[in-house]
Amino acid sequence: MAERQINGRKNDPQRTQEDILDVATEEFSTHGLAGARVDQIAERTRTSKRMIYYYFGSKEALYLAVLERSYRKIRTLEADLELANLPPEQALRTLIATTFDHDEANPDFVRLVSIENIHHAAHMLRSEAIRDLNVSVIQTIEAIIDRGLADGTFRRRADPIDIHMMISAFCFFRVSNRYTFGTIFRRDLSEPQTIERHRTMIADAVVSYLKSR
Amino acid sequence: MAERQINGRKNDPQRTQEDILDVATEEFSTHGLAGARVDQIAERTRTSKRMIYYYFGSKEALYLAVLERSYRKIRTLEADLELANLPPEQALRTLIATTFDHDEANPDFVRLVSIENIHHAAHMLRSEAIRDLNVSVIQTIEAIIDRGLADGTFRRRADPIDIHMMISAFCFFRVSNRYTFGTIFRRDLSEPQTIERHRTMIADAVVSYLKSR
DNA sequence: CTTGACTTCCGAACTAGTTAGTACATTTTT
DNA sequence: AAAAATGTACTAACTAGTTCGGAAGTCAAG
User: Fold this and answer.
1) Does the beta-carbon distance from B162 to A205 stay under 8 Å?
2) For A123-134, what is each residue's pLDDT tens digit?
3) Confidence at residue A10, expressed as pLDDT on a 0 to 100 scale
4) Which of A170, A177, B52, B72 is 20 to 30 A from A94, alpha carbon to alpha carbon?
5) B182 has a chain A CB within 8 A of its CB
6) pLDDT below 70 — which residues of chain B?
7) pLDDT in the model for residue A20
């Protein structure tokens, strides 16, 4: 399976599809579902519009494929954090930092989720793949809270989904609302200093919330 | 300026424009800038597409008008809270509750901001009206923190913009990500019970953060 | 290892339907 | 009468999706 002739076409369906998805991810995340143009996606691809329809069938189906792919990427990165061995507070801080870093590193994903919300999560609903997700993180948080309450680190029995929401909200908002927030307050949320400050801030806030009563 | 004939056309530019803006707000916030259809907006109006172009010139200009109007509405509602007389913690809790209630009551606004972020706040940048906004809330927060530090209620000297972001993030996310979050965790974020719990939760979290060190 | 038939993969040009925006005439108000 | 406001009908451009033809890979038989 080595290289072929230099000039002729080399069929590589795998790569072609990946290529399309890469470009489509960018286009959808910058222009939205309705705003993205199939022709524009095709042009930026090293293949043609014909291929987009050959492999994905329609614009919406392509969008769904992009969405699923983005979610799948996270699922793999998540998990395997080995938090059970850490003391509760440190485990929680590690989990929060991971969420924070993920959103910071994947603005495309954040934007796609925003777009999906504008569409009332209609496409997500049709995809079982995506629906059965993120549930593990809730169990992780619940376990941490339980351990913290047992050893006296925490004093408040909070709902793990609420805690997850609080963490997500902060991490997500920083990225999703970067532009309007930055414009209004003339603050660049992507400066390293700011990132670092926010990273500890959200962790401190959640920890102090759980410690208080 | 009393009533005119019952059947003939009555010119009412003021009302016509308001009518257009009302419908356009809904359409843009449900379908996005690219997804919204001028024809659809026109149809739902009690006037015609001709009038949309007569008064607003273009689809984008209409979108901008919608955006400015939404922001203006808040500015008026904000302010006048008379927080200076309340003790620091209570002042902060009142401010947070106000932000929370506003976002909860104005999903259209929240969605428009999300949409504007997808477009990198490009339209907002072109509108001075919107840019010079929300700055007052920062001064309000700063004053509360200062008073709290002075009288020993708070122990942490936090950046007021960061605090505002933390509050906004939570309140905004609940509304903006209602659909994806609800789908994944099978939780309806618009239930009265949930709303009430979250309302106190964000306040408790911010307060405990400022009290801790 | 060559042939050829079959399948998979791909390109260029086209189409049918949609959509933002307009021309022109008409009515209402001052 | 002049200006402001409105209705009807149209168009030029765009855009998702398709048609048709053909090249590249596969595999079995000779």
Assistant:
1) no
2) 998 887 777 777
3) 59
4) A177
5) yes
6) 1-11, 76-80
7) 94
Would you give the DSSP letter of residue B83?
Answer: G
Nearest Cα residue to B36 out of B80, B5, B1, B67: B67
Q: What local confidence, expressed as pLDDT, does residue B178 receive?
A: 97
Q: What is the number of other CB atoms lying within 10 angstroms of the CB of residue A196?
A: 10
Scanning every residue of chain B, which has its alpha carbon at the shortest distance from the alpha carbon of A111? B118
Round to whole Å and give the CA distance between B104 and B23: 20
3-class secondary structure, B111: helix
Closest CA to B181 of A46, A39, A165: A165
The pLDDT value given to residue A51 = 92
Residues 6+ apart with CB under 8 A from A34: B31, B32, B34, B35
| Partner-chain residue, chosen from A131, A183, A204, that has the shortest CB–CB distance to B209 | A204
Residue of B nearest to A184 (CA): B131
Nearest CB among A31, A117, A158 relative to B176 is that of: A117
C1' of C13 to CA of B102 (Å): 54
CA distance B45 to chain A (A): 22
The pLDDT score that the predictor gives to residue B200 is 98
CA angle (B178, B183, B184) in 5-degree steps:
110
**Among all chains, which residue has been given the structure tokens 């290529």?**
A19
Number of other CB atoms surrounding residue B129 within 10 Å: 15
pLDDT digits (tens, 9 = 90+) for B32-71: 999 999 999 999 999 999 999 999 999 999 999 999 999 8
Q: Which domains does chain B have, with CATH numbers?
A: 11-57 (1.10.10.60), 69-211 (1.10.357.10)
Angstrom distance, A96 CA to C17 C1': 49
